[in-house]
Structure formats: C-alpha cells, structure tokens
Automatic annotation (TrEMBL):
InterPro entries: ABC3_permease_C (IPR003838), Lipoprotein-release_system (IPR051447), MacB_PCD (IPR025857)
Localization: Cell membrane
Membrane topology: Multi-pass membrane protein
Membrane-spanning parts: 260-285, 306-330, 336-355, 362-381
Name of the featured protein: ABC transporter permease
Organism expressing this protein natively: Psychrosphaera aquimarina
Pfam families: FtsX, MacB_PCD
C-alpha cells in the first residue's frame, strides 16, 4: 500500500513539473517564432496577402485555431557588433497590428532597457515611429554590452550592390530602440525591424511581403493545420512550413524525456503491484486450510476468488487515493514549501519550479495504479480458487 502511494505521489509530482517546463518552453520559444509559414514558391505563383488568405479559408474548420494572420517579411542577416559578427533572423513589423502576440508584451522588461517603466505598447509605438530602428533580445545585449541608443550595422548577404571597392552586401546602420525579453535562446537569435526598412535593405518595395505567417491558439497543432492548408494552397505553388522544421528537435527531446520519466516512475507502481502478488500468494499458502474448510461448507470458487481480489483491490485503491491526495497537495504547494524551507533546485533566488497541475492526469495516474493492483490480485485469487479441499485436509 505504501509502495503504491509513493509511486503515485512521485509520478504526479514529477509529471506536473515536466509539464510546467514544457509549458515554459512553449510560451517563450514558440511565442516568438512563426507557427506556420506560407510562401509562394516562385515569381510565377500568385502573390499572397492577409486579406486574400482570410477570404480563402473563411469556411475552413481550422480557422478557429488561428488567432493571428500576419504578413511575412524576414531575412537571415549578419549583425556587425563592436567586437564581433553575429548571425540573426531579422523579422519585419509592418504596423501595430502586425506584432506577434508572443512578443507583444515582452518589451521594457529587460534590466538593460533605459525605459523600464514605459508600457510595452508605448515601446512598440516608439519603435514604429523610428526610422531604421531595431529591437534586440536582452541576452544578445548582455553578451555584447549593448544598450538602447547604440548603433549596429545590419547586413543582408542575399542582396548586394556594386561599390568602388567591389560587390558588397546590402547593409545599413540601425539604432537600438528597445529590447525584448523572452528568457529563451530566441533572445540571441531574433531581431525586429520595421518591414519597410527591411524591404529597402533587401532591395524590395517598402510594402512588399514574401508570404504570410500564422499564429495558432495551440502551437502543437501546427503539423495538422499545415496539412489542411495544402487543400487551399497547393504544394506545387506554395511552400508551407511550420515551427517543427526549426525547433522541433528540442520539443521532441522534451517529449521523449517526459515519456521516459513516466515509464521509469511507473515501474515504482509495478514493483508495488508485484508486492501485492507475493503478499497474496503467501496469504493463500497460510490460509489454505481455512479456504479448504470454506469450500467443504459450500463456498464456490468464484466467491473464494473474489475475497482475494477484494483484498488486493483494497490495497491498490487505498494506496492510489492516498498517493494521489498527498501528491496533489504537495504539487500545488511545492513552491511555497520550498520557500519556507529554503530549498532552491534552480539555483536562482526567488524563482520557483514551473508547475502545471492537471486533475485529468491525476485521474489517469490513480486509475492506472488501481488497475495494476486489480491485475496483480488475479493470479493469487485463481490459485486460491483452485485449491482442492481433499489435498489440503488429507492429513488434518
């Protein structure tokens, strides 16, 4: 009983923390990157804008899963810093309505920002009013000692022009207007500029775009929605990508880790269930005289079997409910308990563990423990039901 309770408690606690870490990764990384990209394959393909896309999918079932449709203006760029060169992905923002929701409220939170008390909306407005302004991540600023107001040069290797000293990549000096803060590797890889400025740098029309990007209500539906979009935008004319192509390996690793943790901690419950088997087998051996006498008095094998199944089920049900209750209480109050006792598993003062508790998963875990306890009771119960009174009582 104690083994089952301990196994359920450990499984509830660890899976809640793992779900919390996955949720943090989903929020910080997938909030800043495009969930689905739709781009024309060649110049002969039809151009694509936001209004055209909305008109084409207005009757689609997956439309309710899309929360933002934004024009796509982006390019791989080289950032020339005071002491180094850094490869980044430059994304264009055309207006206040084209800001991805994942980074909408991420400005003015950095300790390196000179205007930490200004609201995020005001920061974006100031950015949109700044010609050749750029927003960089706080980790990038931390690594290279950048601050708001510094000048950095952005170069696009895909476009170039002739100069007196030869062919040179298209480049322009930008001024850091603000910094965004997602607390992930995205802070070092992504920069935001105005779409018209990025288009000029790429030798395109200021209002041009290379496709559209979709922000989904649930980023993990990206593969499914990308498949459904092909019905409206044939793969022969449009290239459809999603975040799995760039960040899928990270989340696949997290998913595999969760699966392995689930499997290994479930073994604790399996060991406890095996203990139920051994305990009931010993009980059958010890009580075989009593079982034989009950059978001679008319008790049926099914009744004998049910007695031992109920005994095993009692251990499983009570242990699973006890472990589930203690696990839920401990999980919901884990950070408070850590703060009260001075424990800090992350090594950073004031930061607790990310926890995402699910009553549905708690129900699954408790049900799993109960089912395993019932299955463990079947073999000893059958052994008790198969006892022959004549063999047991022959020498009594």
């Amino acid at each position: 009983m104690a083994g089952i309770a301990l196994g359920v408690l450990a499984l509830v606690l660890v899976m809640s923390v793992m779900d919390g870490f996955e949720g943090i990764l989903k929020q910080r990384i997938l909030g800043a990157v495009p969930h689905v990209l739709i781009k024309p394959i060649s110049a002969t393909s039809a151009t694509l804008d936001v209004q055209q896309f909305n008109d084409m999918i207005q009757n689609a079932e997956f439309k309710q899963d899309i929360i933002q449709v934004l024009p796509l203006v982006q390019s791989v760029a080289i950032m020339q810093l005071p002491s180094d060169l850094k490869g980044v992905m430059a994304q264009g923002i055309s207006d206040d309505k084209s800001i991805p929701l994942g980074v909408l409220n991420s400005l003015s939170k950095s300790q390196y920002s000179t205007t930490p008390d200004v609201s995020s909306a005001a920061s974006w407005s100031r950015f949109m009013d700044s010609k050749y302004g750029i927003i960089v991540g706080q980790y990038l600023a931390m690594e290279y000692g950048l601050a708001v107001g510094d000048k950095i040069r952005l170069m696009i290797s895909g476009t170039s022009h002739y100069t007196p000293i030869g062919r040179m990549p298209s480049q322009r000096t930008f001024t850091i207007v603000d910094m965004f803060h997602t607390e992930s590797e995205i802070d070092e890889q992504l920069v935001f500029v105005r779409s018209q400025d990025l288009n000029r740098l790429m030798r395109k029309s200021p209002a041009d775009n290379e496709g559209i990007r979709l922000v989904l209500n649930d980023a993990f539906l990206a593969n499914e929605i990308a498949q459904q979009i092909t019905e409206y935008f044939p793969e022969s004319d449009y290239k459809i990508e999603n975040w799995h192509d760039t960040h899928g390996k990270l989340f696949d690793a997290v998913k595999m880790e969760k699966t392995m943790m689930w499997f290994m901690l479930s073994l604790i419950i399996c060991v406890a269930a095996f203990n139920i088997v051994s305990a009931l087998v010993m009980m059958v051996t010890k009580k075989q005289n009593e079982v034989a006498i009950l059978k001679t008095l008319g008790m049926t094998p099914n009744t004998i079997s049910n007695i031992f199944i109920v005994q095993g089920a009692y251990n499983g049900v009570f242990g699973a409910l006890l472990g589930g209750s203690v696990g839920a209480i401990l999980t919901l109050n884990l950070n408070g308990f850590m703060a009260a006792t001075g424990l800090n598993f992350l090594g950073v003062a004031g930061i607790g563990l990310p926890i995402e508790f699910s009553w549905l998963k708690l129900t699954y875990i408790v049900s799993l423990a109960i089912i395993m306890a019932l299955l463990a009771s079947i073999y000893p119960a059958k052994k008790a039901a198969q006892l022959m009174p004549a063999d047991v009582l022959r020498y009594e």
